[in-house]
Amino acid sequence: MVNVLFVCLGNICRSPMAEALFRDLLKKENLNEKIAVDSAGTGSWHIGDPPHKGTLGILNKYKISVDGLIGRLLTKDDFDKFDYLIGMDESNKKNIYKITGKPNHPKIIRLLDLTKHNRDVPDPYYTGDFDETYRLVSEGCRALLEKIRNENNI
Ligand code: 4NP
Prior knowledge:
Elements: E1 2-8, H1 14-28, E2 35-41, H2 53-61, H3 78-81, E3 84-87, H4 90-100, E4 108-110, H5 124-127, H6 130-152
Bound molecules: 4-nitrophenyl phosphate.
4-nitrophenyl phosphate binds next to loops.
């Protein structure tokens, strides 16, 4: 099993959106038995909370399941449990480095560095633009799946 963890700051906007979108991709590609996905935040404000209503709204709009999305904190142990730790922006990546104690480890990646954009996923908690976040996260998830398939022969 290949294990993927999406990470953002609050774990209520971007990383649960990525988790739901990626799980949907896996289902469509029949890869649920080969690749597993989860998400976590580096800040503790929303532990145990459901996603932000903007994230729920856009996932519902595109008929993507929101089952099982509950806020949790990134832990040091996550480094060993997951094969890919995917930050939504540069500060998330730095926070993953700090919490796991593994600076510059290649399995810690900023999502849109896997695309032509090489930029942060903007935080809709502040921008209010959940559509833009959805488009970018969706593109990033497709690029990530391609990378995982290539690297793991699936
Ligand atoms: P996220 O957005 O990192 O995409 O989940 C945020 C959600 C909540 C907060 C910050 C960012 N907050 O400060 O509570």
